[in-house]
């Protein structure tokens, strides 16, 4: 059964810019009572909050915090529960990327940071609100933003790929746990997109038949799937195709197909990323 954001509380991480901002705008447009914005970039966060308030109709709650900090997540969650109530819709969108060979990654600035923001933060954030979402016994939704790179290995994205692979496994397991424990009123959707034109993956080249997608298109498709409670949405159509071929073909054959035909293995060769991006910028993909 589908739901609407009208009259509900929506929380978006990585909400100051890019995809996160678009999700927040959609929540206001659909009549959410409370729209909660989490982001590390305080300046951009306040600007986004002001723009959303100007649209009218929703109470906007901006929180500047580092989602990789369990202490900050816990404190902010307590404030949200007191000020805006239990989120009906939680969108785990915040994410960062490092595009380099694994041995070039710094221990803390790269490996720890990517895993903390991309993998651990969605878990800790969801854990902070899920017991209350379950206890209310009213329809609720969780969107976990993963990536197509969490389904296929990609050179120069080893840590990012690992972080998103973990998100997919955790997110779908959480969905099953909620359904099998009789708590299916909280439904989990996993978004698995290829590259999106947000600036986060500037310089990356989409594989064959997989052009970089417009953020508005992805948000629209993801929002619809979330409201309908769909388990998974993969964009574009080549993403599930790639996963299917990877499962069917022997490894040497797949390496040739992915590397020479679809050019998946070359997609990060010219990656530059967003200049001077905040450490917890918007999610991907």
TrEMBL record:
<dbReference type="InterPro" id="IPR020904">
    <property type="entry name" value="Sc_DH/Rdtase_CS"/>
</dbReference>
<dbReference type="GO" id="GO:0016616">
    <property type="term" value="F:oxidoreductase activity, acting on the CH-OH group of donors, NAD or NADP as acceptor"/>
</dbReference>
<dbReference type="Pfam" id="PF00106">
    <property type="entry name" value="adh_short"/>
</dbReference>
<dbReference type="InterPro" id="IPR002347">
    <property type="entry name" value="SDR_fam"/>
</dbReference>
<comment type="similarity">
    <text>Belongs to the short-chain dehydrogenases/reductases (SDR) family.</text>
</comment>
<keyword id="KW-0560">Oxidoreductase</keyword>
<dbReference type="InterPro" id="IPR036291">
    <property type="entry name" value="NAD(P)-bd_dom_sf"/>
</dbReference>
<protein>
    <submittedName>
        <fullName>SDR family NAD(P)-dependent oxidoreductase</fullName>
    </submittedName>
</protein>
């Amino acid at each position: 059964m589908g739901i609407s954001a009208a009259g509900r509380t929506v929380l978006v991480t990585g909400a100051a810019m890019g995809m996160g901002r678009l999700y927040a705008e959609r929540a206001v447009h659909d009549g959410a009572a409370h729209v909660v914005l989490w982001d590390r970039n305080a300046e951009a966060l306040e600007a986004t909050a002001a723009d959303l308030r100007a649209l009218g109709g929703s109470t906007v709650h901006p929180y500047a915090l580092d989602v990789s900090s369990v202490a900050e997540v816990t404190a902010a969650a307590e404030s949200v529960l007191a000020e805006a109530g239990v989120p009906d819709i939680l969108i785990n969108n915040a994410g960062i990327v490092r595009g380099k060979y694994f041995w070039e990654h710094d221990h803390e600035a790269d490996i720890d940071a990517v895993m903390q923001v991309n993998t651990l933060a969605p878990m800790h954030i969801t854990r902070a609100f899920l017991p209350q979402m379950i206890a209310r016994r009213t329809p609720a939704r969780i969107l976990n933003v993963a990536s197509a790179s969490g389904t296929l290995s990609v050179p120069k994205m080893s840590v990012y790929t690992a972080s998103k692979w973990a998100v997919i496994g955790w997110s779908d397991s959480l969905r099953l746990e909620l359904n099998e424990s009789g708590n299916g009123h909280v439904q989990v959707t996993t978004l698995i997109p290829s590259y999106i034109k947000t600036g986060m993956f500037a310089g990356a080249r989409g594989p064959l038949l997989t052009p970089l997608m417009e953020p508005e298109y992805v948000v629209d498709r993801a929002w619809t799937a979330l409201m309908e409670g769909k388990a998974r949405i993969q964009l574009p159509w080549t993403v599930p195709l790639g996963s299917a071929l990877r499962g069917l073909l022997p490894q040497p054959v797949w390496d040739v197909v992915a590397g020479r035909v679809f050019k998946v293995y070359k997609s990060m060769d010219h990656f530059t990323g967003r200049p001077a991006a905040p450490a917890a910028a918007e999610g991907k993909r």
